[in-house]
Amino acid sequence: MSRRRVDSQGSLGPDDEVMPYSDDETDDELDVSSEEEPEETPEPGAPPLPVEAKPSEMGWKVKANDRPYHHLPEFQKKVFLCFKKSRYSGNAIRTYKYNVITFLPLNLYEQFKRVANLYFLALLILQIIPDITTLPWYTTLIPLVVVLGITAIKDLVDDLARHRMDKEINNRKCDVLLEGGFQETKWRNIQVGDVVRMKKNDFIPADILLLSSSNPNSLTYVETAELDGETNLKFKLGLRVTDEKLQNERELVGFNALIECEEPNNRLDKFVGTMMWETERFPLTLDNMLLRGCTIRNTEECHGLVIFAGADTKIMRNSGKTRFKRTKIDELMNYMVYTIFALLILVAAGLAIGHTFWYEEIGSKAWYLYDGKNQDASHRGFLTFWGYIIVLNTMVPISLYVSVEVIRLGQSKFINWDLQMYFSEKDTPAKARTTTLNEQLGQIGYIFSDKTGTLTQNVMEFKKCTIAGRSYGEPTTAEGVVLDRGRPVDWSWNQQADRKFQFMDHSLVACVRSGKDKDANEFFKLLSLCHTVMVEHKDGELVYQAASPDEGALVTAARNFGYVFLSRTQDTITIREMERETTYEMLALLDFNSDRKRMSIILKFPDGRIRLYCKGADTVIYERLSPNSRHKETTQTDLDIFANATLRTLCLSYKDISTEDYEAWSRRHKEAQVSMSDRDAALDHVYEQIESNLMLIGATAIEDKLQDGVPETIAKLAKADIKIWVLTGDKKETAENIGYSCSLLTEDMQIHYGEDINEKLRIRQSTRRNEPSTLRRRKKKPVEPFFTGMGKNALVITGGWLNEILYEKKKKRRRLRLRRLGKRHAPTSPQDGQPQDDWEKEMRQIDFVDMACECEAVICCRVTPKQKGNVVSLVKKYKKAVTLSIGDGANDVNMIKTADIGVGISGQEGMQAVMSSDYAFAQFRYLERLLLVHGRWSYIRMCKFLRFFFFKNFAFTLVHFWYSFFSGYSAQVTYEDWFITLYNLCYSSLPVLLVGLLDQDVNDKMSLKFPKLYLPGQQGTFFNYKNFFISLFHGIFVSLVIFFIPYGAFLQTMGQDGEAPSDYQSLAVVTASSLIFTVNLQISLDTSYWTFVNCFAVLGSIAIYFGIMFDIHSAGIHVIFPSTFTFTGAASNALRQPYLWLTIILTVGISLLPVICIQFLHKSIWPSIGDKIQRNRRKYEIEMEEEEKKKPPAFQRGRGSRRSAYAFSHSRGYADLISSGRSIRHRPTARRGLQDSIRDVPQTVAENI
After folding, report:
1. Among the four residues 582, 796, 1054, 1232, which has the most C-beta atoms within 10 Å?
2. Is 450 annotated in the active site?
3. What is the pLDDT of residues 58-110, one digit of tens each?
4. Residue 1154 has pLDDT above 80, yes or no
């Protein structure tokens, strides 16, 4: 039961069983609404004021079969200036960004919002100015066009996929009532107020008010997998008046009701409205609504009225805002680019000042330097500044961004191609739906997971049972011999059996079939009779529709053991007992609810006996057992064993009732049913009277089947220091039980619930209020831990308590209502538990996040989709950690979009989460490989790529800086123009690109074996400002060596042929050749994983350099383009001198030697975890081979107190529906005749246990 506690305000704590109110209103709107409403205090003794919907809540009007009504001026809203459009959305959805007209301008606008692209455009403009340019314009234009073109093509491909998806959905067909008859219409053409017809297995195109269906009383079954990932069916009901009057097309044409309801919102759990038709008003609730995203099941045909369409539907309102996601490395890279810009401006300004002084002192006085321009020194210095901006622009190479995009694309393809993430059962591969977030997968700190359909399969399996003190379910032969490994039972003897059902204990089957064990027969008879399951006959097969998967699993188990539930009417239930069909009269059905935690059925047997069957939680059943009941101790022991195996248990019992006792109880029951005051309490009291002195039969054990590998995945991710939070809409007991099943919760954890959490936070808030105001607002105050003990802690908190703790709007609305009624003053007292200002509310949120992060596990249950997104936002905001959300339903879309990385579980019925996700795969266990292998590799590769890319461009560019000291700071370049153009495109790009694509410090098996390898990514140790400045100083050192060693070698030298090689062009060739050798050999030293491709890239880059250089320096090309290619013969002349080859070797050797020494010392003295694993790789590989041979046993836990999760978590069933008879058209005559014939033949032998 949910515990209730009086808080500091005197109000009761939230109900753990209730999903909290999820609204779209802001605090400002609440304040406005409170001010607008007059304060009305009822007089003493006067009746309470009627509660009516506010006008703001009932501001949506829909007229049936009247499209022009919704385009009246009163329903128009201003779009831009004087342009208006209808406030009612069309039903077409749009997720694409571009169309044919907007693609080019909008895409270019978005690309030029990136500072680097804007910078290179400015450079291009500068290079066109003759007085400033020091390099040809094509050196910038060609790379810029390539980068913009590749990015635009990638964006176009992504947007075309969105166009296809939108087109597929918008072009689905549906029957709409137009011009007096139903016409097949595309979804995009459906409008608010249209009457639509849907058939079995159709998707629901909009949020629709159910009018009528082919089932009795307009009962319609819907599957909500798209919304919440659950595949068990829910039922919806039409109003009685529409069911009776709107069954055929002619009646629907004349339907002209006016619907007034709440505005479009994201509340999946609430709908309030009124239908005015034929001068009467009829209330509307969520039970009358069919929501977009659901699917019609088991209903041949139904009709409905469109209330909300397109963007106004609840599923679209819950999808949250589409956020532009960027990685932490992206943000860091931008800051580093800004740093380089600042360095560039400082260096260019310094060199420009140097040129001003040089020209003043030397340049203006040297007659041979006169260029015919009468410009003073300051003017020349100003032009030189822009000249150096152009010359040194390669410190921020434009190819960096296109290289990053290529690497990310490659990493995405590797994820798509990974066969170990391919789910063959559903033919579902992993899919990277974005190419921009791969390296972020290597930095995850927090995972937020849904439960149903994500951790679990939402499939319940009947695994074990205990009957009359004997336990069944282990692999056993028909004779009762226990086996290590058995084979499933062959159900061929039972024509009605469900072939998918598997059971390993042959002895129980033999026992039931023999008919000798009355206990076993009574056990399965109870399972086949005591339930609220509905049955459908489909193609000769029985199809059960249960209010929960647990119910279905129990009835299916009874069916396979020979007790087949066949049909039910309002007051009978028919089963086949071992080939004999029997009909029982149902006298009363006492349904589950969250307080009772049990259900009972009172039946009249064909022989006239009256018996009550009851099933429920063991704690509830044991309190109501007769002192004469047997097998209590042995059953208790079996329950503990089942609970240790994380199975959901349920106790079964019965009671024989005399006719006199039943008639007396029946009178009290009817009185309670018509009670006008507190009817539920009266009924519960009557139920208690009959559900006593029960006789225990046994207990069932159901497995809430986890997806394969979930416990192992969670344990492995926990070792990688990734915290996992479960955010689910399920009940607290269900979520907690799954927490134990998947090893998220363990026996040594202290679990804290909402009351404890609220009290700890209240104490912390009171302590803070008592501090002096000067200390209170101090930011850097060290945070005291909430849990001072050494043990592990876990939080289990419901959505109601979450709102209570974080001061969400429901509580604010309640305070405002009380304030309006004069019951409470505004919260200004320091003793009041409410926040005094925004700062205090923020501190409360920080306290909650700090407390949660101290825990090993956090489970938030009964939370709305909006709350899921809010929890993720809190951790992102206050912990600055990288977050990942994973889910499978539309209720997970908000948190998937809010998190830094969103993962959708594909291959299920619901695909809404996948469409909003960044990555998609079929099983939760693949998350381990996505993060620990692909994520870690992507992060390491990107970091290594960026470090080396910055280094090689600093080494390349800063040679110009050193050369300027010997060229009068004249912005003359050191290299040939074509070398500058091709350096980043051809000569040094491929090796570093392949490192970014293929490098790995350890293989995938080692990455999974040692999760601690993931920690550097979380801490961001491989790429940060420290690494950036190391690359900068490394580049400065290499540029110094590359310039000054050739410069010193060229001083006062003479070639072998008597010619001096110390000309400018020879120096350019030697420095360029030294640079190419150095950077390509440096990347070879940094490569951890060598392949043929890497080797080819390094040698190929050097070969390409020499091949192109000799071509460019040839006489033939100079003759064709004399002004463009001016280094005629320079390469062949310089490189035939052995002296210059020795200079190149010396330069390369001195550049690389310090790096080799540092790497050797680092790996010897301060080895990383990866270095140690590399060193002992062979030993670990042998260990893994041995582990593969002997697999560890499945996870088991030992907590005897946790069981009966089924009864605790089960929701209210179809009892009211069955008792009312609304689900049954009429009682079949054949069944009635059969029942009468059975009653005519009294059964002489009573069945006693």
Report:
1. 796
2. yes
3. 678 899 888 888 888 877 776 666 677 778 888 888 877 888 888 888 888 88
4. yes
Of the listed ranges 351-355, 688-692, 1051-1055, the one predicted with least confidence: 1051-1055
The boundaries of the domain holding residue 657 are 460-706
Task: Indicate which residue of 450, 505, 918, 1001 is catalytic.
Answer: 450
Is 704 annotated as ligand-binding?
no
Give me the phi and psi of 505, to 5 degrees please: -95, 100
Least confident residue range of 679-693, 708-722, 1008-1022: 679-693
Give every CB contact of residue 346 below 8 A, 6+ residues apart in sequence.
Answer: none
Query: Which tokens hold the place of 1122?
Result: 């004399």
Query: Tokens in use for 225?
Result: 């997998």
Annotated binding residue 730: yes
Alpha-carbon distance 888 to 861, whole Å?
16
Q: First-to-last CA distance in the chain? A: 32
Q: Is the pLDDT of residue 757 over 80?
A: yes
User: Looking at the structure, do residues 95 and 190 belong to the same domain, yes or no?
Assistant: no
List pLDDT tens digits, range 997-1036: 999 888 888 888 889 999 999 888 999 999 999 999 999 9
Residues 954 and 971 in one domain: yes
Per-residue 3-state assignment (H helix, E strand, C coil) for 680-719: HHHHHHHHHHHCCCEEEEEEEEEEEEECCCHHHHHHHHHH
Same domain, residue pair 144 and 97: yes
Least Cα distance to 62 among 194, 205, 250, 159 occurs for 194
User: What is the residue-averaged pLDDT of the chain?
Assistant: 80
Q: Domain end: 105, 136, 168, which one?
A: 168
Angle between helices 1138-1165 and 1025-1050 (to 10 degrees): 150
Evaluate whether 346 touches 294 at the Cβ level (below 8 Å): no
CATH of the domain at 267: 2.70.150.10
Whole-prediction pTM value? Answer: 0.78
Tokens describing residue 1019: 């801490």
Is 427 known as a binding-site position? no
pLDDT at 833: 53
Do 380 and 473 belong together in one domain? no
The answer, yes or no, to whether residue 405 has pLDDT greater than 90, is no
Residues 533 and 613 in one domain: yes
Residue 342 lies in a domain: yes
194-223 residue pLDDT tens:
999 999 888 999 999 999 988 877 888 888
| C-beta of residue 127 within 8 angstroms of C-beta of residue 973 | no
CA gap 830, 832 in Å, rounded: 5
774 part of a folded domain: no
Cβ atoms 211, 195 nearer than 8 A: yes
Residue 719 burial (CB count, 10 A) = 14
328-361 vs 1025-1050: helix crossing angle, rounded to 10: 40
Residue 1196, classed as helix, strand or coil, is: coil
| pLDDT score recorded for residue 749 | 86
**Does 1240 reside within a domain?**
no
Answer yes or no: is pLDDT of 316 > 50: yes
Q: Is 728 labelled a binding residue? A: yes
Q: Is residue 888 a known part of a binding site?
A: yes
Nearest-Å Rg of the Cα atoms of the chain is 38
Same domain, 464 and 518: yes
Contacts of 547 (CB under 8 A, 6+ apart): 232, 532, 533, 1210, 1211, 1212, 1213, 1214
Q: Which two tokens stand for residue 266?
A: 């994201």
Domain boundary residue among 291, 319, 347? Answer: 319
* Segment 619-671, tens digit of pLDDT: 888 888 888 888 888 998 888 888 777 788 889 999 998 999 889 988 888 88
A 10 A CB-CB count for 26 gives: 10
